[in-house]
Design brief:
Two copies of one chain form a homodimer.
Chain A (H helix, E strand, L loop, with lengths): L16 H6 L8 H21 L3 H17 L6 H8 L2 H9 L37 E10 L9 E5 L21 E5 L5 E7 L4 E2 L5 H8 L5 E2 L2 E7 L6 E6 L22 E4 L2 H7 L5 E5 L2 E3 L4
Parallel strand pairs in A: 1-10, 1-11
Antiparallel strand pairs in A: 1-4, 2-3, 2-7, 5-6, 7-8, 9-10
């Protein structure tokens, strides 16, 4: 007769399931790793205990995660889309970018930023395909005391009037269409020409799109222009400016809209100014300042 | 000047993030779908708020899920492995198979069950590769009142003594090695010959294996034989019998061990019985009854 080893760890039971799993974490695991793992297991088990999934529902969840993984390629990140439409990306951004009142708020980066664009002169028109309603954007970068921030770098990008970024339509749109970089002058000022942004759907031909349809949700993002504003000594701002008349303003499928990021869009009927800009009249005019907080 | 549409839904804020996401679920969504989605979002946001991941940690989570998805193929299900090692598979099983005291408990099915094996005569030796320590297993299938259940079907499968299931080593192991099906007689009895089960690691060359190492955990399953016991009018039992002397009994990496499933393994030194079984002496002898509850 062989002996029965005494358990060193408690055997599984439903009531204490999360604690039993977490008791297995080894003694030499880094404290942050332990903290994250314990929280994931605790919340995951709490969710399962509340939902009480059938075996078939559990298997459907496994299949959904598998399908989402299989959709990911070098140019499509379906798990980021999932994080976006569940509000997790915005929540992580909010947690990491709590700022004093008055400082420009962050919103999500999105997958279409391209690094390494060269700086253009003020006034450059970044629209190279001639589509959309002309728009001039002017503003300043200032600090939280209202002082100008000179030599700040402003990256800007948006979709064209068909709702696609240049990198989604290589060979269709001109290279670098609706993408630019500007540097503020000694008064913190910048300006450039572009077109009014439009709403567009996130890629919805995969598992995340199917999930949105199952939940009775649409895949549309509110119309916006992306910005990254960086200056030495200040916290970098990653944000959007939203068009105030977009029908999806309160229903952005990735929850990116904040009240302070709804832009001041004016339809300007001024033949003389239009002519100086090379625009027809009326055209859109936006005034947008960015307020930076010092880096910690 | 264009007008500003009034939001129909609240804009994002950190404090109310989960409620804001859940408010988007459409009015015509099935109530169970709504219930599951709301719980997932609520627990997910609670986890993020507790963990407060940095952007880099969030990206590492996205990459882990992506890698796990990419590891999944027709013959490798890395998300089920993840569910297993986090105790979720056992929790879902426990929730769905609460049974009265005395009824045989369930444990996880695992990925290596093969349906459609034909029934063998009692006493058949299911070990076809000659490896391992011979073992005879005898028992009865009874109901919770102790009455025999005749014509019950018992599926059995286990790894060979190298720690692999036949389906993991096609062309290496004989087809159907250590896999069998038996039917109880009029007294509920069954018996068959096999070998003592051994511990073995789950596949740990993927993201789940890397996660286990990061958490200071080993990938080993406690030594076990799998069973599915089915009879008309009774709830099907999916379970294991564990070898009581296995060093991983209290550390099964998928949390499958329950006290009631630790088998009664006797090392039997009896030349006459050994000869009648075609075994050397001593050999292993296991007595295992299965107690079924009526189906609802």
């Amino acid at each position: 007769m062989n002996h029965i080893d005494r358990p060193h760890y408690p055997l599984f039971n439903e009531a204490d399931s999360a604690e039993i799993v977490n008791a297995r974490i080894g003694p030499n695991v880094a404290s942050r790793t332990r903290q994250v793992a314990e929280a994931v297991v605790r919340h995951l088990h709490a969710a399962v205990k509340e939902i009480q999934p059938s075996h078939e529902e559990w298997l459907a969840a496994i299949q959904f995660l598998t399908d989402t993984g299989h959709m990911c390629t070098d140019w499509r990140q379906e798990f980021i889309l999932l994080s976006d439409v569940l509000g997790v990306s915005m929540l992580v951004d909010a947690i990491n970018h709590r700022r004093p009142d008055g400082a420009t708020e962050n919103t999500i980066l999105g997958p279409f930023f391209v690094d390494g664009i060269s700086v253009s002169t003020h006034g450059t028109n970044i629209c190279h395909d001639g589509k959309g309603e002309p728009l001039v954007l002017r503003g300043r970068v200032i600090d939280i005391h209202g002082e100008p921030v000179k030599d700040a770098i402003i990256d800007v990008w948006q979709t064209n009037d068909d709702g696609f970024y240049d990198v989604q339509q290589k060979g269709v749109q001109p290279d670098g269409n609706l993408r630019g970089k500007f540097e503020t002058d000694s008064e913190g000022k910048y300006w450039f020409r572009t077109v009014k942004p439009r709403d567009y759907p996130i890629p919805d031909d995969g598992p995340v799109g199917r999930m949105l349809r199952t939940l009775g949700r649409h895949p549309n993002r509110a119309a916006h222009i992306h910005f990254i504003v960086q200056a030495s000594g200040y916290e970098t701002v990653i944000t959007h400016i939203f068009a105030p008349d977009c029908p999806y303003l309160a229903e952005d499928t990735v929850f990116g809209v904040k009240e302070s990021l709804i832009g001041n869009f004016e339809l300007t009927d001024n033949e003389k100014e239009a002519a100086s800009l090379g625009f027809p009249s009326p055209f859109w005019s936006v005034r947008q300042d960015f307020v930076l907080k010092p880096s910690d």
